[in-house]
Automatic annotation (TrEMBL):
InterPro entries in the cross-refs: CobW-likC_sf (IPR036627), CobW-like_C (IPR011629), CobW/HypB/UreG_nucleotide-bd (IPR003495), P-loop_NTPase (IPR027417), Zinc-reg_GTPase_activator (IPR051316)
Species this protein is from: Lojkania enalia
Keyword Nucleotide-binding: yes
Key words of the record: Chaperone, GTP-binding, Hydrolase, Nucleotide-binding, Zinc
Alphabetical list of Gene3D superfamilies matching this protein: CobW-like, C-terminal domain (3.30.1220.10), P-loop containing nucleotide triphosphate hydrolases (3.40.50.300)
Name of this protein: CobW-domain-containing protein
All residue ranges annotated as the CobW/HypB/UreG nucleotide-binding domain in the record: 58-261
Chain ranges of the CobW C-terminal domain: 344-405
GO (cellular component) term, any one: cytoplasm
Length: 412
């Protein structure tokens, strides 16, 4: 059965209610976040509705291929009227002399060791910048807290934005002062399809055998930047035809149906607030976004695609089983139950799961980190309605994932 559409029949699963176990965790030591073994007691990290990170500074990560228009976007944002005092972090690897940025704010020579210059801009915004990312640079910047209320991080040369998101998820790390608001990816409308099709080439020199094996086409940097994005700007629209723009948009949606897509020229986004800045992509899971993602977009890309698992509202006891499913899938790269599956990897995950006692749980995941919080039911959501988990990844066979999840929920 094809579960692509949100109109699919939903299996009925009603079980007795019990306590909810919620986790934020990773098993990848490289991510330097708390790691839990199955035997460990799982901390209850349920956040209440009022526990929003209001005192934390939002950070938006701007990724994109060389020349896609990242600096043009930063310049554009810095000159708009948004009332924000923005600090810019430029992540420049290698020989920075060759790639010196020409931001609107010209004094860009600070390093993490020196005091950070703050430059007032005409629109009331104050800009400062640090070069090089890394925890130390951000911590250093945070010592100047109060002078800015928003951070933009341009990730020049950073191949994989999935590695950076976990830095902001735990309260004892950077997450106590900053929260990740969203990842914005710029793609060059003229070249992005070529970049995605380089899957059989050797575009990413840093990939190991893992990335070239039975998964099929190679995971390119363009795939990684698109699959992790919350907002995608298809930039340089002036250089291609309308037909080509449609082709690019369809290909991008087939990879990441959760992201909002905007076609731009010179990175000029019509609306910044709520579309590109202050989007809370890691603490909100909007019903409408999941509905859009589950619409059944064509699977035009053979490397990464978006899939939706739809199922019935869960009892509290079944919520614990869902937690087991997520842990097994994200930490062990396996599916619970005796179910045949091919090797897979999950880049991004979002879900809304209503419970039979009238709550709604919001699930967020990046790679093997995930987080479940209690949210507010939306006006259109009926109590005990349909649960949806949207997965963006490679090697995901939707029917196998759903079968595994339903097996676990039925055996609860
Ligand atoms: N024709 C056209 N040129 C653009 C557009 N957006 C940016 N550019 C130009 O493209 C070039 C690269 O833009 P940048 O903003 O520097 O791109 P970037 O992503 O920061 O580049 P790197 O830092 O090298 O990765 C510049 O010459 C821009 O003026 C656009 O929409 N159309």
């Amino acid at each position: 059965m094809d579960h692509e559409s949100s109109d699919d029949e939903i299996p009925v699963l009603v079980k007795p209610e019990e306590k909810v176990n919620l986790t934020v965790a990773s098993q990848d030591p490289a991510l330097e976040v708390a790691s839990l073994n199955e035997d460990d007691e799982i901390p209850n990290l349920v956040k209440g509705l009022d526990d929003t990170p209001t005192s934390k500074v939002p950070i938006t990560i701007v990724t994109g291929y060389l020349g896609a228009g990242k600096t043009t976007l930063l310049n554009y944002i810095l000159t708009q009227q948004h009332g924000k005092k923005i600090a810019v972090i430029l992540n420049e690897f290698g020989d920075t002399i060759d790639i010196e940025k020409q931001l609107t704010v010209s004094d860009m020579n600070s390093t993490e060791a020196k005091p950070i210059p703050f430059v007032p801009l005409a629109n009331g915004c104050i800009c400062c910048s640090v070069k090089d990312v890394g925890v130390a640079a951000i911590e250093n910047l945070m010592e100047q807290r109060g002078k800015f209320d928003y951070i933009l991080l341009e990730t020049t040369g950073l191949a994989d934005p999935g590695n950076i998101a976990p830095m902001f998820w735990l309260d004892d790390g950077l997450g106590s002062t900053i929260f990740l608001d969203g990842i914005v990816t710029l793609v060059d409308a003229k070249n992005v399809i070529k970049s995605l099709d380089e899957g059989f080439g050797d575009e990413r020199k840093d990939v190991g055998d893992h990335d070239r094996d039975e998964h099929g086409p190679l995971l390119t940097t363009a795939h990684l930047q698109i699959s992790h994005a919350d907002v995608i700007l298809v930039n340089k629209a002036d250089l291609v035809s309308k037909k080509e723009l449609d082709r690019v948009s369809a290909r991008i949606k087939s990879i990441n149906a959760l992201a909002k897509i905007e076609i731009t020229t010179r990175s000029q986004v019509p609306k910044l607030d709520g579309f590109l800045l202050d989007i809370h992509a890691y603490d909100e899971v909007k019903d409408a976004d999941l509905k859009f993602a589950s619409k059944g977009h064509s699977h035009l890309d053979r490397t990464i695609s978006t899939h939706t698992l739809s199922f019935q509202a869960l009892s509290q006891e079944q919520v614990s089983s869902l937690d087991v499913f997520l842990r097994t899938m994200l930490w062990e790269d396996e599916l619970p139950g005796n179910i045949a599956f091919q090797r897979f990897e999950i880049h991004r995950l979002k879900g809304r799961v209503p419970t039979t006692d009238g709550k709604v749980l919001l699930i967020q995941g990046v790679r093997n980190i995930y987080d479940i919080n209690e949210g507010k039911p939306s006006q259109s959501e009926k109590p005990g309605g349909v649960s949806k988990i949207v997965l963006i990844g490679r090697g995901v066979v939707q029917s196998a994932f759903l079968e595994s999840l339903l097996w676990l929920l039925h055996s609860t």
